[in-house]
Amino acid sequence: MNNTQTKQTSFPHVVIIGGGFGGLYAAKSLKNAPVQVTLIDKRNFHLFQPLLYQVATGTLSPADIASPLRVVLSKHKNTQVLLDKVVDIDPEAKKVFLEGQDELNYDALIVATGVSHHYFGNDQWQDDAPGLKTVEDALEMRRRIFMAFEAAEKEDDPKKRKALLTFVVVGGGPTGVELAGAIAEIAYQSVKDDFRDIDTTQAQVLLFEGMERILPPYPEESSAHAQQALEQLGVDVLTKTLVTNIADNSVTFRQGDDTKTINAHTILWAAGVKASFMGKVLADRAGAELDRAGRVIVEPNLSLKNYSDIFVIGDLANFAHQGDHSLPGVAPVAMKEGEYVAKLITKRLEGETVKPFEYNDFGSMAVIGKNKAIANLNFAKFSGFLAWIIWAFAHIYYLIEFDNKLVVMIQWAWNYITLGRGARLITETPSLQLEIESTPHPGNSTPNTKDSIQEPVSV
Amino acid sequence: MNNTQTKQTSFPHVVIIGGGFGGLYAAKSLKNAPVQVTLIDKRNFHLFQPLLYQVATGTLSPADIASPLRVVLSKHKNTQVLLDKVVDIDPEAKKVFLEGQDELNYDALIVATGVSHHYFGNDQWQDDAPGLKTVEDALEMRRRIFMAFEAAEKEDDPKKRKALLTFVVVGGGPTGVELAGAIAEIAYQSVKDDFRDIDTTQAQVLLFEGMERILPPYPEESSAHAQQALEQLGVDVLTKTLVTNIADNSVTFRQGDDTKTINAHTILWAAGVKASFMGKVLADRAGAELDRAGRVIVEPNLSLKNYSDIFVIGDLANFAHQGDHSLPGVAPVAMKEGEYVAKLITKRLEGETVKPFEYNDFGSMAVIGKNKAIANLNFAKFSGFLAWIIWAFAHIYYLIEFDNKLVVMIQWAWNYITLGRGARLITETPSLQLEIESTPHPGNSTPNTKDSIQEPVSV
Q: Which of A125, A289, B143, B381 could form a disulfide with A297 if both were Cys (CB 3.0 to 4.6 A apart)?
């Protein structure tokens, strides 16, 4: 492919790296702009990350929350989707280098490659405690959760059986809360009649959080509601709990001064994220400044200090020009940033400028179990079923394609009625190791992020 | 697990190996019988095989056509489901040996482990031409089909691009016909607006059949209708065509006297099946007689000649006591055989006998594309849309769980309206090699099947 020519002919060429919320919404917003757009992603689909935990816990299928990028953008005649990996860039020559020796010239570059799991320097924990970022991660979690019950049904040794029925979720953020709630529902409701030699209601589900309360960024009231709702579902919530080691199906953790170790066959990681590979590339090639997690510190207009034609959006960006801390790594922020950069590029072509990016936070939500949630909106706080309704509609609304919405709503309704887990298939997935190796993250060995690696494992 | 004790206490113990149509319907039919049932499967779900090609071609998700065995049988209090592999049996001691050193005593044994791909002694073709039996097979086929278009979009070399856009299906049985029709629809309809540098309507879809017509067991009229419908969709149907080699993304085939080789990046195998591992075990341990494909030749009551307490049903059984050839390896036969054996076992406990198994063939069906089919029923022949309606209802009716039915109907309706392929995501799946190695098939190296290995590759 010689895009170097083809893309130079007519319109300015905007290259977008990453088809997540940031990259996709940037592309969508450029539909009618006088530009040629190339969206590059190493997967052929946009993944609706906020519902990924429902794939991991057997409620939804991957296809329910994934939309092929080509389908979403097929009507965008100025846009080409490329299934490829970006390996390097040259900001002076304005080139992007792809895995297969191909290269693209760009007039504007939008980097939206997001973040991956962060084990705070303990990458050896990956195998024992997988994280949740990709479809393969979700299917691997699903496999582990449901295999644990299958193995317990065949296990005579009470000690081993107990370990098989012990589930630990590390990290009390939204993902950890959602995973813990869903696993409790599986053990205590969905599968309780399905086994003959074990009582799944004897299973133990633990949620570890390093701070003094779960959902730390939320108001205390919301955190309290969330903890209460989780405990009603049967989750043991351990706050001020630091994981010091994970190995051989056991977790060692510190609470205050005493250190404990419990045997748990299923350990899930929802504790930390680190910048994806492109953060390092931007630092090396374009002198981008990275924060401790390797995220790119951007200008008020989301561009790089030294390169006004390179923009970083979404989870990979650290935008701290508003409020006292950087914006959270959530879908709504990424969407708004994508739309903003698309507008900036369009205006710039008309010789106009736009004012710095501003984000109006409409609030945050986390779901607990099948029908409870915490909705902390900027005009009011909700919890319980009402919050769940708000959560459900907000998520359904943003599910890219109509058929996904319809199918997901039906799956939810059906699960709601039956407590069923239609998608609880145990399938073979590549080891998480493979998945992680396939995307190198040298970022975590750069000076920029060293301190974050050295810091104690506060989850 | 020490089932040897636990299962001996009260009722006679019926052990069923395999949770496909045969095994599942046997278990369902024993719900109220005075027996204790153990259903063993190496997967935790029943797979609705007849729709697997729709997973392979991106219409459905695995969970849409899979039902967790525990859910289907959760109300059967006399039934335990075990996720395990049977490695051997001892018909004298009436024992089944499981992978994990566990063993089960049985009073009656029902073997329903089905068949796997058969490459007629050319197992080296597996990697180049995967078959379609498991969920992983289907996801691997899906990956190859959709990756081919992605790679073509990036390919400059016209020759390579042509090979990437050439799809060969080997085998003109129902599965081959259904795959070829679906791939033609993908190339000529579903994805035609999604690419910028390639014209997917230039793709070539070939269907190879060794006999003089596709769907050989069907009436000539049906075969003709099927071929006509496929050609309307754009499939090149090559009959009297024998594949002589598959290697390096190319297929060599013989038509009459001339031999051709074409470059095709995607080659799918729908040509032959061979008995699963248990066939060999029954031959070695119980002196069962196997046919050329390694299937077990059963008595009129589906038991083994030497062991009236061992039954073989479904695709693994060769039942030739009715009509002039053995019953076809299709779901309806397996279901009826499962129900029959369940009844026989129940009656036997009451000291009664039942008359030999009889199968009333209601006919056979194959679907071509989205809205055409061939229905060859014993009272009438249908083709086109009407046949498709019959096909759709017959399949929906047998989808085990209601939520599957509902979701599948919606997916179909949606695809029907939009020509969409909602489930076209490309995910990482283990290489087919792995999948096949995970289930050894010594059967194909036994004298019983040698001739079938030596025979020319008639597809």
A: A289
